[in-house]
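Sample 3 of the quickstart, ligand cytidine-5'-diphosphate:
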Amino acid sequence: MNSKSASNRGESCPIIAIDGPAASGKSTVGDGVARRLGFLFFDTGAMYRAVTYAAHTRHIAIEDEGRVSALAEQLHIDVVPSTVDDGRQYTVLVDAEDVTWALRSSVVDTYVSMVSAYPRVRTALTKQQHRIAQQGNVVMVGRDIGTVVYPEAPLKIYLDASPEIRASRRHKESLARSQPADYQAILSGVLARDEIDSSRKTAPLRIAGDAVVLDTDQHTVAEVIDRVVALAEPFLPHPVEQSGC
Ligand code: CDP
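Result:
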């Protein structure tokens, strides 16, 4: 990392890191904060989902770590501002194919944490994340942004909520998309992903020492967005500096 990019990310063109367990509201809050600040919203979970989806559609066994890792190393994944007005927050392209909605399927939910635990997959995707976020002024959400991907981020948030609240939010989202949804199955899926994500050897989900922990059980989305925007205030770029991002 050169000193210019390090100082950009730390000072004039910051990265706001938001981590937390499954369905803790990172995407909704991250997107809301990014819109308020005029920052890019970058959901890194979409990349792990994209590799899982691509392995599934290419009939690669998810247990085959070597082939899944080789696939992650060769795929070109882009997370770009929404290209279609159908309720999506962003568009995900895998080798130029729009896979945005396919990433939300239950098969991807089931296998994504297994894929995310493979060290070579993480190395490949972390490299692509640095490519996409290098200009700064980004709200990045995931599991390891504040701990591994951008430990120098000036603001790190850890969003949390009880498993029951997280499962009921995800349940409502699925129903809103007219997807079949069973609350108990969603709750077990969320708990299973938390367990794999927190116990894996490489870049496990954990709270960075200097993260601000926000428990969202008792707060509306608007309240949490307001709080993160207020916390970001001291790190926002001065208008004159913005052109340098
Ligand atoms: O939206 P939700 O919280 O359900 O999940 P996501 O953010 O889309 O992430 C899906 C999965 O990708 C997680 O359960 C992790 O296994 C993995 N992930 C990761 O390991 N590291 C990241 N930076 C982001 C996601």
